[in-house]
């Protein structure tokens, strides 16, 4: 229960979505095609991002947001991608009972006992976007690919 739709930004190393292209690539660096092919994998979350080499604010998990501009911050094209477009996913996330946190816990391995996910609240500190983090591969699935122009 408690399914939610949330945005997820990731990196793209191919032209999926550009000009109507529907071909998934086989580039190891393309997190976008990897997620679409095999769904989310907590074990590889954040590992291949050159700008994000450590676990996230709440440990290694699948990070999503109700705010598309938050996902846009993580939607990156590798230098080999020559386009004015970016890509993000709209996911279906099973949030279950949310553990609401108010401070960073980078070494966290999952929600507190009795909870299914972690929620970061909007009003906390200097961060101004909500986040929903799940720690099980099956708790999030990619549902829609969004291609959009980005300056």
Describe this structure in words.
The chain has a single domain, classed as Alpha-Beta Complex (Phosphoenolpyruvate Carboxykinase, domain 3), CATH 3.90.228.10. Strands 3-8-7-6 form a four-stranded mixed beta sheet, with no helix packed on it. The chain contains two helices and nine strands, in the order ββαβαββββββ. The chain is mostly beta strands and 151 residues long. Residues 54-119 form the PARP catalytic domain. It comes from Neolentinus lepideus HHB14362 ss-1. Pfam families: PARP (PF00644).
Q: What is the fold's blueprint, element by element?
A:
Blueprint: E1 3-9, E2 11-12, H1 31-38, E3 62-64, H2 68-72, E4 76-77, E5 85-94, E6 98-101, E7 117-120, E8 131-134, E9 140-149
Parallel strand pairs: 2-4, 6-7
Antiparallel strand pairs: 1-5, 3-8, 5-9, 7-8
Keywords:
single chain, 151 residues, mainly beta, Phosphoenolpyruvate Carboxykinase, domain 3, four-stranded mixed beta sheet, three-stranded antiparallel beta sheet, 2 helices, 30% strand, elongated, NAD+ poly-ADP-ribosyltransferase activity, Poly(ADP-ribose)pol_cat_dom, PARP catalytic domain-containing protein
Alpha carbon gyration radius = 15 Å
Q: What is the CATH topology?
A: Phosphoenolpyruvate Carboxykinase, domain 3
Task: Give start-end ranges of low-pLDDT stretches.
Answer: none
Choose one word for the global shape. Answer: elongated
Taken in chain order, the helices and strands follow as: EEHEHEEEEEE
Domain PARP catalytic: 54-119
Protein name: PARP catalytic domain-containing protein
Pfam families: PARP (PF00644)
GO molecular function, one term: NAD+ poly-ADP-ribosyltransferase activity
């Amino acid at each position: 229960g408690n399914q939610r739709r949330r945005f997820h930004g990731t990196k793209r190393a191919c032209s999926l979505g550009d000009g109507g292209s529907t071909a998934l690539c086989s580039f190891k660096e393309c997190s976008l095609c990897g997620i679409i092919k095999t769904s989310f994998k907590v074990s590889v979350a954040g590992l291949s991002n050159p700008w994000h080499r450590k676990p996230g604010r709440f440990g290694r998990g699948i990070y999503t947001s109700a705010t598309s501009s938050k996902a846009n911050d993580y939607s990156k094209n590798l230098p080999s991608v020559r386009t004015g477009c970016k890509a993000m996913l709209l996911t279906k996330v099973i949030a279950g009972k949310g553990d609401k946190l108010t401070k960073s816990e980078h070494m966290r391995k999952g929600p507190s006992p009795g909870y299914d996910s972690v929620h970061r609240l909007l009003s906390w500190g200097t961060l101004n976007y909500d986040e929903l983090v799940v720690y099980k591969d099956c708790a999030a699935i990619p549902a829609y690919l969004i291609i959009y122009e980005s300056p």
